[in-house]
Automatic annotation (TrEMBL):
InterPro entries: DctM, TRAP_DctM-Dct_fused. Residues 116-549 form the TRAP C4-dicarboxylate transport system permease DctM subunit domain. It is a multi-pass membrane protein. The chain crosses the membrane at residues 15-36, 42-61, 73-91, 103-120, 127-144, 173-196, 295-321, 341-361, 368-390, 410-436, 448-477, 497-521, 533-552, 558-579, 591-621. This is TRAP transporter, 4TM/12TM fusion protein. It comes from Litoreibacter albidus. GO terms for cellular component: plasma membrane.
Amino acid sequence: MSHISEDVVAPSSRLDWIAAALAVGIGLFVFYTSFFGSFETLIQRAVFVAMIVPLSVLLFPLGKGRVWRPLGAVIDIAISGFVIVAAGYIVMNFERIMNDLPFAEQIDIILGFGTLLIILEMARRSASLVFPLIVGGVVVYAFLGDKIPGSFGHRGFDAGYLAEVIFLSDRGLWGMLVSIASTTLAAFILFGALLLHTGAGQTFFDLSARAGGKSPGGAAKIATIASGLFGSISGSSVANIATTGNFTIPLMKSLRYPAPFAGAVEAVASTGGQLAPPIMGTAAFVMAELVGVNYWTIAAVAILPAFLFYLGVFTTVHLIAKRTGLGAVDQSELPDWREALNWRRMSPIIAGVAGLAFGIFNGNSIQLTACYGMVGIIGAYTVATLVSGGTIREVVLTLLRALEDGGRGVVIVGILLVAAQVFVAIVNLTGVGVAVTSSILALAEGNLIAIALIMAVVCLIAGMGLPTSAAYVLVAAVFAPVLIQQGLEPITVHLFVLYYAVLSVITPPVCVAVFVAATVAKTSWTGVASQSLRLGVTAYAIPMLMLIYPGLLLQGGGASIAMAVLAGVGFTLSVAAFFAGQPIFGRFTSLLWAVPAVLLLFPHWPATITGACLVAVFWVLSKRSADAAFIATPQQEA
C-alpha cells in the first residue's frame, strides 16, 4: 500500500527560503511563549501580527505569475513594512494604551485603518473575498449608522473613535481572538504539525486500513476513518482532502467505486474532522473564550456528537457497499499490524498524549499543556530515531519541517481571526446583534423550532465560502444570542452554530470541500455534492438533536445522557439506513426506517425505547433480507 508523504518540498528560491525561515521563526515563537508564558497582552498580539503578515505576503504574493508582479512585489514589501511599523508602535506605547486610554490622533487613524485594510487584503488572498467584504461592510455600517432608519440604525461613529476601538485598545486588531490565535490555537497547530511529521500521519492511515480495509466498502471506510483522524488534528477540510484524498479517492476509483461517491466520502469525512476533538477546526479554542468555559469542557461535550457524525457516515457507507457490491481492499494491499503499530512511529504519539495528560492533571494552562505534549513528541522521536539507526541531522530536519509547517498553518487562521476580532468589536459597538436577535424572534414568533430552523439556514448561508474559524465567529457573534435568549445553554447554542457553519463546506452551491474533492476525483462537482448530502444527512440533524437531548452534551445527569445516547445512536442508524435505501424485508420497505427516526425525535422514555426497539428489530430483519431485486452494480448506483 502506498504511503502518505509528510515531507515539505525543499525551498527552491531565495523567497522560498525566507518564507521557510519566517515560518520556522513563528513556530519557535509559539513554542517559546507556550513554555515560558506569553508576553504582555498587546506585545504578544502585536508581535504575532507583525510576523504572520509578512509570511502571508510571501505565501500569497500579489500578481504572482503576472507581468506586473514587480509592482506587486513593491506593494507586498510596503504592506509588510507598514504592519511592522504599526505593530512596533503598539509595542512601544502599550503601557500608555492600556493605562491612559488615549484619544486617537492622525497617526493612529492612519496606522489603524491602514493595518485593517492590509489584514482584509491578506484575508482575501488567503481565503476568499467574502469575509473581507463582510468585515468591511460592518465597518462602513459603524460609520453610517445614524443615516439608517429603524431598529438597525445607531448613532454613528467618527474615524477617531473607531480608530480608538480598532487600533488603540485590546478590542480590535489586538483583541481576544488574536490572543487565542497567538497562544492556545497556535500551540495546538504546532502540536499537530509535530505529531504528523514524526510519524502519526502514516500511523493513522495504516490503522485506518487495518480497521476498515477488509470489509465491504473497505476503501471508503479507510477514507472515513483516516480523514476523521487527520481532520481532528489538522482542523481543515480542504487540507485534509488534499492530504488523504489524493490517496483514498484514487484507491476507491481503482476498485470501481463511482467517482462522485468516492469524492463525497472524502469530502464528508474530512469535514467531520473539524467537529471532532481535540482541535475541531481551531474553533474550539475560540468557542471556549466566547462561552467562558475551559477548552477541555468544549472537547468533552463535543465527543458524542462527533461519534454520531462518523457513525452516520460509516453506517451509510457500509450499507451502500453491502447492497451494491463495493469491494474491499485486497489483503495484500493492507499493512500488517506490526507495520501499523511500528514502535518508531508510535512512540512520539504515545509520548505526546502522555505530555498532554500530564499538563491536564497538573492543572497547567492550555498552551503549556500543549507544550508538554510537544516536548514529549520531540523527545520520543529523537530517541526512537537515534536508537533505530537514524542521525541527528535527520531529527533536526524533521523538526524544522514540522516547525515550518506549523508556522505556515498558523498564518491563515491568524489573519482571519484578526479580521474576525474587528468584526466582533464592531458588532458589539453598534448593537447590530441585538437588532438581528429581535428581528429573528419577531419572525419566528417565539417558537423554538422555527427559531432553530431559521438559525440553521442562516448559519449555512453565512458560513459558505469561509474557513471554519471565520465562519463560526461571524455567525456566533451575531446569531447565537437568539437561541441563548430562549433559555438554552450557551455551550449548546455555540456548538449548534458551529455545526451548521462547518457543514456549509459541503452544502451547495458554495461547497468548497466538494469542489476540492471533485477536482481530485476528476468528476462533476454536482454529483459529489449530491452524494455528500446523502452521506452527511445525519450530520445536519445532529445539532437539532443537541437541542432535543441535552444529554448529548453531557448535561442533565446520568438518565439524560443515557436517553440521549440511546436516541442518538438509534436515530443515526435509522436515518443512515433510510438514505442508504436498506430494505427491511422487501421492495420499498426501506421507507419504514422513517418510523423509528421520527419516534426518536420525542425526548420521552416510551418514545425512545419504542424507537430503539424498532431500530433493533428492523436491523435484524434487514440483515436477513435477501431480495435480489435490490442488488445493483456500482455503476447503477452512481
